[in-house]
Write a structure and sequence with these properties.
alpha+beta, 10 helices, 55% helix, 6 strands, 207 residues
Length: 207
């Protein structure tokens, strides 16, 4: 059995990697939204975070690997969208460094056109991405929703909300809309908040 990262943000980062093209398919804020939502979803699934569909609230005390619980506890009530948007770009670097230190990826620095500093991510063992993709694919098409692994269900919910084409191309999101909705309902309020955040930003840019 192939070992995969324990954290949901790390898993979602690896799922954004295209094995065929050997590069990341998402970058910047949109990837950051998915990763932040993954961290919030992990806390929610473990009972460390509660709240309703509008706002998260501290739940059962426990580990706080990314410091989100401390932020939420020390703040006035704010929406899920606020916490997903907050520090989204730096959060990508945080998760990337977590994976680099764990030996899951290699990060190479270079200059685009000889001028602009860039970083290239390479997954060291493609079987890890394949295993994660297999779990998400099984969640989408396999056993009854109630029996699906909670992280696999969340991976599908977050990938659909964040329009992560490496996991769910648009045609699959449309074809499996009902199943995605059921998996999303199991995974908590963060994934729907990502979808609404991206839709709102897209509408604002179009207007």
């Amino acid at each position: 059995m192939i070992e995969t990262p324990d954290s949901l943000p790390a898993r979602m980062f690896l799922l954004a990697y295209d094995l065929r093209k050997q590069k990341m398919t998402m970058h910047g804020s949109q990837l950051g939204y998915v990763l932040r939502a993954a961290a919030l979803t992990e806390l929610y699934l473990d009972g460390r975070l509660g709240g309703d569909d509008r706002r998260p609230a501290p739940g059962t005390p426990g580990d706080d690997p990314y410091g989100m619980l401390a932020q939420i506890s020390g703040s006035r009530p704010r929406t899920w969208r606020y916490w997903i948007r907050k520090d989204s770009r730096p959060f990508v670097a945080t998760v990337r460094e977590e994976l680099r230190r764990g030996g899951w990826i290699r990060v190479t620095r270079y200059r685009a056109f000889g001028l602009f500093p860039r970083e290239r991510v390479t997954v060291k063992d493609p079987r890890v991405v394949k295993a994660l993709w297999g779990g998400a694919s099984s969640a989408l098409r396999g056993r009854p929703v109630a029996h699906v692994n909670s992280y696999d269900a969340a991976a599908v919910a977050l990938a659909a909300a964040g329009e992560m084409r490496s996991v769910l191309p648009g045609r699959d999101r449309r074809r499996h809309r009902r199943r995605i909705a059921e998996l999303t309902a199991r995974s908590g309020p963060a994934a729907p908040a990502v979808r609404k955040l991206i839709s709102a930003e897209r509408a604002a840019a179009a207007g």
